[in-house]
Q: What sequence folds into this?
């Protein structure tokens, strides 16, 4: 019996949904704009899963290593590699962005412009000490409820090192975390099947609110994204 490639059909369904969303947004702009909550809801579902995935992955990875020194060595190499590759990736992205100017000509609403200005003003008031203190969550579980990635990472690292120090007594907890991790990824797989609905609503809203100009700007952005990926993967990682 030939095995059905279900992710392949999901990918095709997303493409069909994107085309259908563009058509609805151009033909019925008001309806397309009204469908925006579909895309927003899908993004919210994905964001909901970020903290559990980070916690389970990091806590299991660190807690399963027998020697703390090995964790430090591997972590140091990974951090150094991440910093170097991220710097190169940012440089390539800046070059491509300054050449093709993604988003040029896209008119923002006054509400979006005001929100961006407020966010920039808040970011300017922050300093290094405030940033570092912000990594520490209010409680052990507030990192999950607030959706703060760095706080979740800190809690996961502390949990992993604590499990590592417990030795053999941590085996049942690690087994439980493994089951929770499988549960989390199963939920994520279920959410991903809603991707066509989210893509349909998001594209309908973009096309309905901005028309062809918004689609052109989005296309330039996607082209820039793929060009950057090809340069980074082919020239740097290759």
A:
């Amino acid at each position: 019996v030939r095995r059905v490639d279900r992710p392949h059909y999901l990918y095709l369904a997303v493409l069909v949904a994107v085309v259908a969303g563009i058509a609805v947004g151009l033909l019925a702009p008001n309806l397309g704009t009204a469908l925006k909550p579909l895309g927003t809801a899908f993004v919210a579902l994905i964001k909901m899963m970020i903290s559990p995935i980070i916690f389970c992955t990091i806590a299991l990875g660190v807690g399963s290593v027998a020697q703390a020194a090995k964790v430090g060595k591997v972590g140091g190499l990974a951090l150094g590699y991440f910093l170097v590759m991220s710097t190169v990736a940012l440089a390539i992205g800046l070059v491509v962005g300054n050449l093709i100017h993604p988003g040029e000509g896209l008119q923002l609403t006054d509400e979006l412009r005001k929100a961006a200005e407020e966010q920039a003003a808040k970011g300017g008031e922050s300093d290094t000490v405030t940033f570092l203190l912000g990594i520490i969550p209010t409680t052990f579980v507030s990192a999950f409820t607030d959706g703060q990635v760095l706080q979740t990472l800190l809690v996961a690292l502390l949990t992993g090192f604590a499990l590592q120090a417990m030795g053999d007594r941590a085996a049942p907890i690690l087994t439980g975390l493994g089951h929770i991790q499988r549960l989390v990824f199963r939920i994520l797989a279920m959410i991903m099947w809603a991707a066509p609905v989210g893509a349909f609503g998001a594209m309908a809203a973009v096309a309905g609110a901005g028309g062809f100009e918004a689609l052109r700007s989005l296309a330039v952005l996607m082209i820039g994204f793929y060009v950057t990926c090809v340069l980074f993967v082919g020239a740097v990682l290759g």
Notes: The longest helix spans residues 195-237. The two ends are 38 Å apart (CA to CA). Residues 83 and 135 are 19 Å apart (CA to CA). The mean pLDDT is 82.
